[in-house]
């Protein structure tokens, strides 16, 4: 069992030196107490040397992880300067002060970054303690205003761990019921399983008073009880009183004091050290099974990465050539796996490069195409201007001019360039990210060469895509099998029924007045009729209104109403629905009204003629006045819709194919066949395969951690878990806390 505490020390060192990246809660003893309660003195008494910064006010400003190791020779060493052995303990104090100031500055600020100190001595038992800053209430000097909160948070960070034993230090010149240390210990350890009480300054009590009831665990009982100690006074410290003499004086104090004489064997620093050693050893033993499983899972996660480094010889010249070949091969395999997908080592946390590119092709790009769909009003205005401009001075003809159709189609096709080029940019970004992910293990030169190649391909791919669009512009194929052609000036009905132009919720404003005046329905507008249903399931149809002879007019917004309203009426003065001459339809916003009006336009339901007047009093509807022209606009509108749909379909199909061929497959071929040649020609191979400082450090850390874990598991495996341990004392009535 004596191996246990040094084992934890080894682990602590291994993990501290690599930045605590192994999140293991190692068993240790945290020393907690108010400012100037005597925590540091207790630790010095253990070592038998003066080595901690002393004084009044806040002295301990960083956690000190103190590892005491039994050894025949006496010296100390710090983790931050391992090469140096300190035999003069005054120098240890100076180093602690300097290291504290290095992180916290010379003011009274604090930091949670620990200092690791190891003391080898024939006078100590194996122990690992953490000396924490004293609990303080009021900021001193230029300390931050929230110093109490900061210290409290830091202490809780250490004592909240189930693996920490808590040494709660309280001076007797303070009422135990007010002890901050016991109060904080109670917060994190309500059962008292991990808390050991230490009472200091017993020699300073008023004459005629003593702490006998406390030390006998009668007054304020703790499950693990209290141990009393007598530290040197500040005068003794200033007078350089020897610690061994102080320990002898402490022993004499307990033996001669009438209140403590009967329990002198259970008091004093040597007894406290023995108890802590035993408690910590037991505590470690109880934590072992959990610690072992944590270590094993850490080891497993490192195994694969370490495999690459195990036989690494940085100085072997043959190794560099072999490593270069292996690296390029591995890079090619990794890149292909990320792009093409693979069954092994599937990332379950985020989408890989290939999946992201697929999403750009089939979700993002189609969305960009839909997003650029034209404004209905503008499009109809453009069509009417095109028709008028083609006829020029002559009367608008009887026939729909196909030149107007071509002009409008070309204008819409040109708009495709922007989303197409944006798609290429998005794919390039994903490719470069994929290259970066694959080159985390290899060298910057590789990343630079492949990224440069991708950038070169960018120009060729974009040229090809612009060429595709120019090809579409050069010939408008009106004989395409999917094109609706000139057979009808309205979209022909699908074999499965009339084409649905729009679905959505609308409120009928002027029905069921007795029931409250308005009701919301689910509307379906087709090229032939307007139907409304109870809800979007479209099972319960309320009514179907044919579109013949229907027109739209605006309706004033009602008083107090937030809705925007338009109405549908019959031009032949017939009732539209039941006994209503018009039905008023309400939307939440003017945009919705305009959008629905545009949909009705596509179905051939036009606005009433005399709606808008310009400033001269002349009627100027945004839509054509002339029924002949109106009909031609509608015809071309439907033809444009059909043809642009065909082109969008074609572009949606060709874009991914073009990008795959010219960029993605080309980059894969480049990596497999040309990357090695580029690497050889780009620079000196020996310098090329030279590890960067970061890689060397990472390799060292990885191997250090791996060996530390293996060693720890080995030591834990050797320990007999059947070793006798003392059971935890029975519970006590600690309601006083």
TrEMBL record:
Main location group: other
Matches recorded under CDD domains: DLP_1, PH_dynamin
InterPro entries, per the entry: Dynamin (IPR022812), Dynamin_GTPase (IPR001401), Dynamin_GTPase_CS (IPR019762), Dynamin_N (IPR045063), Dynamin_stalk (IPR000375), G_DYNAMIN_dom (IPR030381), GED (IPR003130), GED_dom (IPR020850)
GO cellular component terms attached to this protein's record: centriole; clathrin-coated pit; clathrin-coated vesicle; microtubule; midbody; neuron projection; phagocytic cup; phagocytic vesicle membrane
Domain PH: 499-605
SUPFAM superfamilies hit by this protein: P-loop containing nucleoside triphosphate hydrolases (SSF52540), PH domain-like (SSF50729)
Domain Dynamin-type G residues, every copy: 23-289
Gene3D superfamilies to which the protein is assigned, alphabetical: Dynamin, middle domain, P-loop containing nucleotide triphosphate hydrolases, Pleckstrin-homology domain (PH domain)/Phosphotyrosine-binding domain (PTB)
Record keywords: Acetylation, Cell junction, Cell projection, Coated pit, Cytoplasm, Cytoplasmic vesicle, Cytoskeleton, Endocytosis, Endosome, GTP-binding, Hydrolase, Membrane, Microtubule, Motor protein, Nucleotide-binding, Phagocytosis, Phosphoprotein, Synapse, Synaptosome
Enzyme class (EC, first level): hydrolase
PANTHER family listed in its UniProt record: DYNAMIN, DYNAMIN-2
Protein's UniProt name: Dynamin-2
Protein's organism: Leiothrix lutea
């Amino acid at each position: 069992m004596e191996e246990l505490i040094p084992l934890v020390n080894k682990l602590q060192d291994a993990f501290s030196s690599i930045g605590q990246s192994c999140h293991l809660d190692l068993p240790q003893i945290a020393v907690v107490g108010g400012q100037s309660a005597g925590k540091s003195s207790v630790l010095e008494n253990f070592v038998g040397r003066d080595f901690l910064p002393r004084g009044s006010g806040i002295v301990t400003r960083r956690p000190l992880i103190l590892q005491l190791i039994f050894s025949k020779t006496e010296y100390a060493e710090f983790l931050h300067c391992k090469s140096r052995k300190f035999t003069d303990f005054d120098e240890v104090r100076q180093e602690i002060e300097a290291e504290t100031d290095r992180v916290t500055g010379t003011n009274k600020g604090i930091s949670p970054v620990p200092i690791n100190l190891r003391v080898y001595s024939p006078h100590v038992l194996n122990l690992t303690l953490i000396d924490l800053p004293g609990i303080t209430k009021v900021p001193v000097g230029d300390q931050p205003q929230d110093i109490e909160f900061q210290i409290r948070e830091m202490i809780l960070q250490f004592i909240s761990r189930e693996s920490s034993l808590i040494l709660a230090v309280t001076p007797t010149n303070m009422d135990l019921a007010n002890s901050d240390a016991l109060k904080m210990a109670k917060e994190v350890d309500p059962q008292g399983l991990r808390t050991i009480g230490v009472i200091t300054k017993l020699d300073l009590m008023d004459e005629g008073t003593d702490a006998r009831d406390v030390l006998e665990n009668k007054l304020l009982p703790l499950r693990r009880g209290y141990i009393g100690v007598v530290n040197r006074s500040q005068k003794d410290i200033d007078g350089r009183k020897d610690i061994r003499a102080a320990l002898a004086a402490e022993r004499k104090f307990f033996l001669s004091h009438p209140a403590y004489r009967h329990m002198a064997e259970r008091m004093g620093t040597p007894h406290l050290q023995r108890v802590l050693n035993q408690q910590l050893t037991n505590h470690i033993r109880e934590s072992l099974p959990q610690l072992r499983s944590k270590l094993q899972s850490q080891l497993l996660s490192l195994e694969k990465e370490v495999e690459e480094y195990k036989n690494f010889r940085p100085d072997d010249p043959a190794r560099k050539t072999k490593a270069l070949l292996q690296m390029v091969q591995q890079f090619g395999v990794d890149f292909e796996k990320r792009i093409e997908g693979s069954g092994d080592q599937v990332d379950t946390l985020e989408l890989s490069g290939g999946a992201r590119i697929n999403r750009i092709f089939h979700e993002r790009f189609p969305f960009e195409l839909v997003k650029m769909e034209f404004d209905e009003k503008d499009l109809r205005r453009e069509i009417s201007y095109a028709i008028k401009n083609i006829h020029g001075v002559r009367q608008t003809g009887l026939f729909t001019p196909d030149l107007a159709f071509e002009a409008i189609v070309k204008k819409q096709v040109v708009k495709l360039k922007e989303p197409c080029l944006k798609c290429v940019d998005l794919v390039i970004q994903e490719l470069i990210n994929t290259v970066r992910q694959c080159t985390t293990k290899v060298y910057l030169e590789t990343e630079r060469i492949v990224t440069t190649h991708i950038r070169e391909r960018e120009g060729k791919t974009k040229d090809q895509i612009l060429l595709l669009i120019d090809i579409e512009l050069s010939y408008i194929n009106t004989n395409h099998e999917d094109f609706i052609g000139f057979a009808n000036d309205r979209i022909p009905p699908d074999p499965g029924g009339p084409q649905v132009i729009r679905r959505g919720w609308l409120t009928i404003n002027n029905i069921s007045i007795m029931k409250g005046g308005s009701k919301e329905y689910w509307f379906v507008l087709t090229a032939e009729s307007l139907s409304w249903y109870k809800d979007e399931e479209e099972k319960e149809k309320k009514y179907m209104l044919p579109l013949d002879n229907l027109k739209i007019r605006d309706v004033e917004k009602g008083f107090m109403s937030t809705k925007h309203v338009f109405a549908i009426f019959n031009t032949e003065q017939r009732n539209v629905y039941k006994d209503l001459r018009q039905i008023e339809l309400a939307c939440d916003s003017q945009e919705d009204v305009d959008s629905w009006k545009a949909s009705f336009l596509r179905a051939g339901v036009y606005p009433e003629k005399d709606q808008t007047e310009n400033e001269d009093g002349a009627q100027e509807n945004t839509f054509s006045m002339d029924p002949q022209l109106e009909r031609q606009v509608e015809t071309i509108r439907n033809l444009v819709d059909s043809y642009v749909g065909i082109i969008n379909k074609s572009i949606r199909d060709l874009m991914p194919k073009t990008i795959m061929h010219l960029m993605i497959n080309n980059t894969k071929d480049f990596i497999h066949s040309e990357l090695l040649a580029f690497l050889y020609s780009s620079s000196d191979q020996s310098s090329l395969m030279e590890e960067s400082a970061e890689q060397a450090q990472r390799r060292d850390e990885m191997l250090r951690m791996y060996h530390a874990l293996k060693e720890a598991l080995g030591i834990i495996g050797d320990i007999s878990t059947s070793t006798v341990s003392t059971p935890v004392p029975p519970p006590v009535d600690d309601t006083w806390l």
